[in-house]
Amino acid sequence: MDKTHFIVFLFLILLIISFYYITLTARALKVGKITPSMVDSMDKEELKAYAQASEKIDVNDNVIPITLILIASLGIITGYFISRTEKPDCKNVISFFNKEERKAIEIILESDGKILQNEWRLKMKINKSKASRLADKLEKRGIINIEKIGKINRLYLTNEFKKSINFKK
What we know:
This protein is mostly helical. 70% of the residues lie in helices and 9% in strands. The chain folds into 2 domains: 3-84; 90-164, Arc Repressor Mutant, subunit A. A hairpin with a 2-residue loop joins β2 (144-149) and β3 (152-157).
């Protein structure tokens, strides 16, 4: 049973329990609606039945469980719908960048989120200075980090950007 089915199953159980308590409360309220004139018209057996019913069911005993069940049910329903909200699609997020930036990010994504700057530059088909400026621009915007390894630079996606595009590698 996956998470979604478990949440729905738990919600149904809580719903059944809450209906049970609501039914008990309704009966208690029904039993509680008695006037002095009604007492005068009741015989001893009816009064005894009323007394037994009112002893078994106390409205105040049911208010707290019903409230807790309803709050828990509301929490479960809210949690279910929050878990069902769609994460942003990678292509939708990348579409906000200009054509050159989009191509640069897609090349890094195709390389599992990290690539050497020279390899990236060759795939981009741009010169070294333009590649350096573009990498610096993406780093300032928080899209990539540039790791200097001697004379070689490695570009990799930042954790924040990976989360924003739901990157799973």
